[in-house]
Amino acid sequence: MTEFDDQRARMVEHQLAGRGIRDPRVLDAMGRVPRERFVEPSLVASAYADGPLPIGEGQTISQPFVVALMIESLGLDDDARVLEVGTGSGYAAAVLSLVAGVVYTIERQAGLAGAARRRLAALGYDRVHVRHGDGTLGWPEHAPYDGIVVAAGGREVPRRLRDQLAIGARLVIPLGRTRRAQNLDRLTRTGPESYEHDDLGEVRFVPLVGRAGWSEDRPGGIPGMSMWGQWRRPVADTDDPG
Ligand code: SAH
């Protein structure tokens, strides 16, 4: 085992299983994707820390627990077709591709989209398709989706994303009345015009911008705040990941 394999195994045990992530396919996928390859070279020593990390352009790779929670909450089958809004580093898309069949992911920052596309190809994640654009409009050519993950905080569920969800499928999105903090909302499409909501807890994500998001005047979020993409509630029942 390399040092990173060891850190990854401990992350799965303490940060994920220790906090209630149960789906064996999600735990297995999180135990396989090399998170150290998705962070800047200067941050590899912190790749398995229990929090988000900066990835440039004012954006972050989300906390491992939040990635696992969002993916588990979708209840995906092996052959599911999934849409992700907010590719960022490509880390969550890589994990999704090991749990589902195919992943379509959209990133609005061209530099991040290009870097993620190259990184995913180099690592062999060939079931992930990256597009540069406004994810609040969805990716209608491949709809309907068996699951949708929105990895940035919005004010409401973008209508186009709701419409691109298969009946019975779920969408997870951080929703809040301000840019600063959100609750993770899970929407289940129960019929052509009917949806159910569950609240999965308090989180903090970078803002979802674009047509059905916040305005783009401060796309990188709040200056001076760096801890995005994380669970806000202290979690008591876990060991110190060390
Ligand atoms: N899933 C990522 C983390 C995402 S951070 C990972 O695993 O690394 C949120 C990302 O959402 C940022 O990169 C931001 O640029 C992007 N974003 C914000 N609004 C967007 C929109 N309307 N369409 C696509 N991407 C968006």
| End-to-end Cα distance | 18 Å
Shape assignment: globular
Rg over CA atoms: 16 Å
Structural class: alpha/beta
Portion in helices: 10-25%
Q: Care to describe what's here?
A:
The protein has 242 residues and is of the alpha/beta class. It has a domain at 52-217: Vaccinia Virus protein VP39 (Rossmann fold), CATH 3.40.50.150. The chain has six helices and ten strands. The chain has helices spanning 3-16, 24-30, 64-74, 91-99, 110-122, 159-163; strands at 53-56, 59-61, 81-85, 102-107, 128-132, 145-150, 165-175, 182-191, 194-204, 230-231. Strands 5-4-3-6-7-8-9-10 form an eight-stranded mixed β-sheet. It has a two-stranded antiparallel ribbon with strand order 1-2. Strand 4, helix 5 (110-122) and strand 5 (128-132) form a beta-alpha-beta unit. Helix 2 (24-30) packs across helix 4 (91-99). The protein is globular and about 50 Å long. The two termini are 18 Å apart. The site of S-adenosyl-L-homocysteine (SAH) has 26 residues, from strand 2, helix 4 and strand 4. The site of S-adenosyl-L-homocysteine has 26 residues, from strand 2, helix 4 and strand 4.
